[in-house]
C-alpha cells in the first residue's frame, strides 16, 4: 500500500502539468465549498454575537398574557401570579446553566419622569434587586450603586443609565439632583453603563424589535425594588433575568426557569416565557445557511466535473501504460494488485487536489471577508470532510479505469504499441 | 517431469472459420533441461509459449506443471503460478523506464509480499548473478540493450522460478550482446535452472541442449519426437 502511494506520487510528479490540470476541477470545487462554508460559519457567528451579545448571555423571563408582554401599567395586577420569593430565586440558581439570577419590576413605557421641565421620553423604569447590575453586566460610571440601606429604608434613590442621563441632564452634573417619578421626588445617586455594549446589525424590522427588547434608546432609570410601591403599586408581578453559564446554555436554562416559575402560576392565560434570543439567532442563521446551501450544491457540480476529468485522464493513463500493466500481470501481479494500484493513484491525485483546494478555499474566504467586510471562520470538520470527499471522488471515478486496467489481457497488453 | 503438454490444440475463431494455431502438441520437459523451440513467424511458437507461461489456455488437451493440472486454475492461481514458477524474458525487455534496475528486479517480490529489506537483498543478488552488481541504481535508459536484457533476466530469476521462459531473448540485440546473453543462459542452466527458449534463429537455438521445431502448429523437432516415442507408448 505504502509502495503504491509512493509510486502514485512519483507518477503524479513525473506528469506535473497534466496532474495539476486534472486536479484543477477538484481544487476549484473544494475551494468553493470551503470558502462558502467559512463564510456561512463566520456570518452565523456574527449573527449569534450581535443578537445574543457576546459574553453577556442574559435571558429575560417575562410575564406574557396570550403572547403579549404583560404590562402592569395597563393591565393592572394579574390574578394567579404569586410574588417570587427568595426561596424560589434560590431554586432558580440551582438550575443547570444558571449562573446568576435577578428579579425586577418594570414599566417599559415610563411616563411622568421629569427633571425640572425635561421629561424622559421613550424611557423605561426598572425596580431592581441587588443582583441586577452584576447579572446584566452594568457598571457604575458616576456616583454609587444601590446599597443595603437603600433597600431596607425604602430610600427614594435612582440610578440612570447613560442614555437616560443624556436625555434628562444633557451633560450636567446629575448626582444628588432630584428627579420626579410619578410625582414622587427621587435622588439621583449614580450613572451606570453596560460593561460590554454591543451594536447589532439591523437588517429587518424583526431585528429591530429584538434589539429594542434587549435594550432601549430612551434610557432606563433604576430604582430599588423595595421602593417600587412608592410611585407605583404593591405586589406587582416580577420579571426574572438570568445569566447563563454559556451562550449555548441560554435556551435551555431560560426554558427551565420559565417552567419553574410557571409551576407557581395558577392563571391560565398569563405565563412566564423566556425571550429566547438564541432561538431567534438560530432562525436567522438557518436563513443564511439555506441560501448558501444552494451555493454548495452548485459548487458540488464542479466536483462532479472534476471527477469526470479524473476518470478521463485515468483512462488515458491506462491506455498509455498498457504494456506496463501487461508486464506486471505476466510476472504474476494479481488483478487486485493492478486495481489497487490505479485506485490508489486516482485517490492520491484527488486527495492532493482536495488538500490544495482547502488551502485555496481558506485564502479565498479571507479575501472575500476582506472585500465584503463579512467575517469568516474556518471549519475544521468541513476541511476533513472535503479531503475525505475528494478521496472518495478519486476512488469512485477511478473505479472504471482501474477495472479496465485489471481486466486487460496480458498477451494483448504486452503486444500493445 | 516438471512440464507436460498432451495433445494440446489451440483454435482461434475468425468469423465463422476456426483456425488451428496449434495442432496436437505433446511435449515433456524435465528439470534442468535447456530446450529451444524453433519456428518461423506465424508457426504458433509464441502461442505455445503463452500456454506454457500460463498466459493463455489451450482449446483442448492437458497441461501439467509440477504435476498439477494448470487448466483448472482460477485467474488468481494462474497469477501465482506465473509469480512463483515461471520467469519471463521478452524480446523487447519490458522494463519499467522510470524505475532503477534494482526496482525493476524486485517488482515480482513486491507481489510475493516480501519485505523491502529482503527484496533489496535478493534483487541485488540476482543482479550480481547476471553480472550487473555495479549497475543497481541505473535506469534502463542508462543501460545498453544487452545490459537491459540481463536486468530482465535477473527479474525473471529473482523469485527462483521452476522454468525460465525466453521469447526471442536475443532478437533485439546485436550479435555480441546476444552471445553474452547466451553465455548467461548456459551459466544459469548449469546452476540448475530449466530454460525453454523460443527463437527463429538456428544458431541461437544451437546453444540449447535439445531442439524442437514447430511448423504450422505442429511440433516436429527430431529430439522432441524421439523423446515422445520413448515415454508415450500409446502414441
Automatic annotation (TrEMBL), chain A:
GO terms for molecular function: transmembrane transporter activity. Keywords: Cell membrane, Membrane, Transmembrane, Transmembrane helix. The keyword Phosphoprotein does not apply. It is a multi-pass membrane protein. Residues 19-253 form the MacB-like periplasmic core domain. InterPro entries: ABC3_permease_C (IPR003838), MacB_PCD (IPR025857), Macrolide_Exporter_MacB (IPR050250). Residues 298-410 form the ABC3 transporter permease C-terminal domain. This is Putative ABC transport system permease protein. It comes from Frisingicoccus caecimuris.
TrEMBL record, chain B:
PROSITE patterns: ABC_TRANSPORTER_1 (PS00211), ABC_TRANSPORTER_2 (PS50893). Pfam families: ABC_tran (PF00005). Coiled coil: none annotated. The keyword DNA damage does not apply. GO terms for cellular component: membrane protein complex; plasma membrane. Residues 3-233 form the ABC transporter domain. This is Putative ABC transport system ATP-binding protein. It comes from Frisingicoccus caecimuris.
Amino acid at each position: 500500500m505504502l509502495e503504491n502511494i509512493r509510486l502514485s506520487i512519483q507518477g503524479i510528479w513525473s506528469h506535473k502539468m497534466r496532474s495539476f490540470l486534472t486536479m484543477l476541477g477538484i481544487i476549484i470545487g473544494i475551494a468553493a465549498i470551503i470558502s462558502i462554508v467559512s463564510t456561512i460559519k463566520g456570518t452565523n457567528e456574527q449573527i449569534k454575537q450581535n443578537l445574543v451579545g457576546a459574553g453577556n448571555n442574559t435571558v429575560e423571563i417575562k410575564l406574557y398574557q396570550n403572547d403579549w408582554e404583560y404590562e402592569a401599567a395597563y393591565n393592572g395586577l394579574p390574578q394567579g401570579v404569586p410574588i417570587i420569593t427568595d426561596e424560589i430565586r434560590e431554586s432558580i440558581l440551582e438550575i443547570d446553566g444558571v449562573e446568576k439570577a435577578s428579579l425586577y419590576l418594570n414599566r417599559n413605557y415610563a411616563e411622568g419622569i421629569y427633571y425640572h421641565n425635561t421629561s424622559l421620553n421613550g424611557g423605561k423604569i426598572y425596580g431592581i434587586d441587588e443582583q441586577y447590575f452584576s447579572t446584566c453586566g452594568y457598571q457604575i460610571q458616576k456616583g454609587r450603586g444601590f446599597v443595603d440601606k437603600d433597600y431596607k429604608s425604602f430610600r427614594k434613590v435612582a440610578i440612570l443609565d447613560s442614555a437616560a442621563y443624556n436625555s434628562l441632564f444633557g451633560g450636567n452634573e446629575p448626582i444628588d439632583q432630584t428627579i420626579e417619578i410619578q410625582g414622587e421626588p427621587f435622588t439621583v445617586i449614580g450613572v451606570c453603563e453596560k460593561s460590554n455594549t454591543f451594536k447589532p446589525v439591523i437588517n429587518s424590522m424583526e431585528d429591530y424589535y429584538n434589539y429594542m427588547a434587549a435594550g432601549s434608546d430612551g434610557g432606563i432609570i433604576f430604582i430599588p425594588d423595595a421602593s417600587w410601591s412608592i410611585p407605583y403599586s404593591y405586589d406587582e408581578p416580577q420579571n426574572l433575568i438570568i445569566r447563563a453559564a454559556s451562550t449555548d446554555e441560554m435556551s435551555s436554562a431560560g426554558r427551565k426557569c420559565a417552567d419553574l416559575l410557571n409551576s407557581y402560576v395558577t392563571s391560565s392565560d398569563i405565563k412566564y416565557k423566556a425571550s429566547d434570543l438564541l432561538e431567534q439567532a438560530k432562525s436567522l442563521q438557518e436563513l443564511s445557511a439555506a441560501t448558501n446551501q444552494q451555493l454548495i450544491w452548485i459548487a458540488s457540480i464542479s466536483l462532479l466535473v472534476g471527477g469526470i476529468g479524473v476518470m478521463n485522464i485515468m483512462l488515458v493513463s491506462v491506455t498509455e501504460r498498457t504494456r506496463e500493466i501487461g508486464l506486471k500481470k505476466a510476472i504474476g501481479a494479481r488483478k487486485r494488485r493492478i486495481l489497487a494500484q490505479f485506485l490508489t493513484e486516482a485517490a492520491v491525485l484527488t486527495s492532493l487536489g482536495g488538500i490544495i483546494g482547502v488551502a485555496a478555499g481558506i485564502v479565498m474566504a479571507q479575501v472575500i471577508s476582506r472585500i465584503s467586510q463579512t467575517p469568516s471562520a474556518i471549519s475544521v470538520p468541513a476541511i476533513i470532510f472535503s479531503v475525505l470527499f475528494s478521496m472518495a471522488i478519486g476512488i469512485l471515478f477511478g473505479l472504471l479505469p482501474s477495472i479496465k486496467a485489471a481486466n486487460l489481457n496480458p498477451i494483448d497488453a504486452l503486444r500493445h504499441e | 517431469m516438471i512440464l507436460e503438454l498432451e495433445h494440446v490444440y489451440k483454435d482461434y475463431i475468425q468469423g465463422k472459420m476456426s483456425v488451428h494455431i496449434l495442432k496436437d502438441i505433446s511435449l515433456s520437459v524435465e528439470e534442468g533441461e535447456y530446450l529451444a523451440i524453433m519456428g518461423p513467424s506465424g508457426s504458433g511458437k509464441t502461442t505455445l509459449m503463452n500456454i506454457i507461461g500460463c498466459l493463455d489456455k489451450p482449446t483442448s488437451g492437458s497441461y501439467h506443471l509440477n504435476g498439477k493440472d494448470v487448466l483448472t486454475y482460477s485467474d488468481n492461481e494462474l497469477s501465482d503460478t506465473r509469480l512463483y514458477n515461471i520467469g519471463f524474458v521478452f524480446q523487447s525487455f519490458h522494463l519499467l523506464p522510470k524505475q532503477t534496475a534494482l526496482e525493476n528486479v524486485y517488482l515480482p517480490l513486491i507481489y510475493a509480499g516480501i519485505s523491502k529489506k529482503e527484496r533489496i537483498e535478493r534483487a541485488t543478488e540476482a543482479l550480481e548473478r547476471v553480472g550487473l552488481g555495479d549497475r543497481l541504481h541505473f535506469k534502463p535508459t542508462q543501460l545498453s540493450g544487452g545490459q537491459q536484457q540481463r536486468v530482465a533476466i535477473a527479474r525473471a530469476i529473482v523469485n527462483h522460478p521452476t522454468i525460465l521462459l525466453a521469447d526471442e531473448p536475443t532478437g533485439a540485440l546485436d550479435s555480441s550482446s546476444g552471445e553474452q546473453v547466451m553465455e548467461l543462459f548456459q551459466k544459469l542452466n548449469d546452476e540448475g535452472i530449466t530454460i525453454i527458449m523460443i527463437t527463429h534463429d538456428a544458431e541461437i537455438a544451437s546453444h540449447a541442449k535439445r531442439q524442437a521445431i514447430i511448423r504450422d502448429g505442429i511440433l516436429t523437432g527430431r529430439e522432441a519426437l524421439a523423446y515422445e516415442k520413448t515415454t508415450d507408448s500409446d502414441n
